Amino acid sequence: MRKITYSQAFVEGLDYCMRKLPNFSLVGNEVMGLGPHRVHLEKIWKKYPQRVNFPPTSEAAFSALAAGAAMSGEHVFCHLGAASFSFLSMTSIANEAATAYYASGGKIKVPVVFHMLHGLRIGGGTQHSMSPQSMYWNVPGLQIALPASARDAKGLVATAGLSDNPTVMFTHDLLIGMEGEVPQKDYEIPFGQADIKRAGRDVTLVATSYMVQVALQAAQMLAAEGIDVEVLDPRTLVPFDRKTLIASVAKTGRLVVADETHLSCGVASEISAIVAEEAFHHLKAPILRVARPDVPTPFSRPLEEFITPTADKIAAAVRRVMRS
How far apart (Å, rounded) are the C-alpha atoms in residues 17 and 25? Predict the structure, then answer.
């Protein structure tokens, strides 16, 4: 099977939406950031020049434009740049897009995708390194997707773009140039369908976005020690695939959750709570979390490395639950 980058696969997903829906359009700045991978979007610009809109940078303005257009019957993909700046769009995302269907008694649909780049990206500092997906998980009415590979990016973008529901999609900056096997054909990946990235029998290791790649590195390290780790990628937080998670924990009896959101009230906390409430009787050891500490992101590289969840830190947590 051919190998392409995450950014190429992402753009193929967008192209599929453009072909499928004549009323699908793009709003916002560079979808794959300001690096070399921005060139892949030129395919969309040239093919659909009337449906690509890059207004002056104002996250509050073009998120409002996107939400309003979606309420008026358009399907809109809105790129907001770094996730840190999505806070400027919170009124449009949380107060309007997320609530319109409920507040209108089901009369108003809001088919919009708010896309943002997140995560520790080597020197991004405080304002370009946030991972606020757990904040958006606290806004009922939003779908949340986090592709962890090129293959998932293409399929999840297609599903999000064709959906009638508002979606927040996160891309980790370090995934953009990563290559993976991606089918040539068009396809959609259903939301709420977790993926076992690596089957195992000893420990369930749950991770999202780029942390999936780090978790797979940790699993490979541990395999050399005779520890068989199952790596589970939820792919979407809303809807969340509880069934696959519980089945995995029932098989292994142990759970470690690795995530780049902060330790307090983060994604790892919520996933841990789900298992504690619904699968406690399956556990052979305490649940452990590997997450970002509750501090702003330092620009200093050594300090940034100190707060980053790494394969070594994940492996240490897995060894700890194996000893329990």
Answer: 9
C-alpha torsion angle, residues 187, 270, 249, 237 (rounded to 10): 0
What tokens were used for 187?
């396809």
Token pair 């809807």: residue: 239
Q: What's the rounded Cα separation, in Å, for the pair 26 and 206? A: 32
Residue 163 CB partners (closer than 8 Å, separation 6+): 111, 113, 143, 191
Identify the DSSP state of 319: H
Domains of the chain by range and CATH? 3-181 (3.40.50.970), 195-323 (3.40.50.920)
Q: Would you give the end-to-end CA distance of the chain in angstroms?
A: 42
The answer to whether the CB of 119 falls within 8 A of the CB of 85 is no
pLDDT above 70 coverage of the chain, percent:
96
Q: Which residue has the tokens 């359009």?
A: 25
The answer to whether 148 and 175 are in contact (CB under 8 A) is: yes
> Could you tell me which of 257, 149, 299 has the C-alpha nearest to residue 210?
149
Token couple for 142: 């939003």
H or E stretch at 260: strand 255-262
Q: Hunting for tokens 């696969």 — which residue is that?
A: 9
Q: DSSP per residue over 117-181, as a string?
A: EES--SS--TTS---THHHHHTSTT-EEE---SHHHHHHHHHHHHH-SS-EEEEEEGGGTT-EEE
- Cβ partners under 8 Å of residue 4, min gap 6: 12, 150, 179, 180, 182
- What's the whole-model pTM score? 0.95
Q: Give the number of other Cβ atoms within 10 Å of residue 273's Cβ.
A: 11
Convert the pLDDT of each residue in 138-186 to its tens digit: 999 999 999 999 999 999 999 999 999 999 999 999 999 999 999 999 9
Burial 172-186 (b: 16+ CB within 10 A, else e): bbbbbebebebeeee
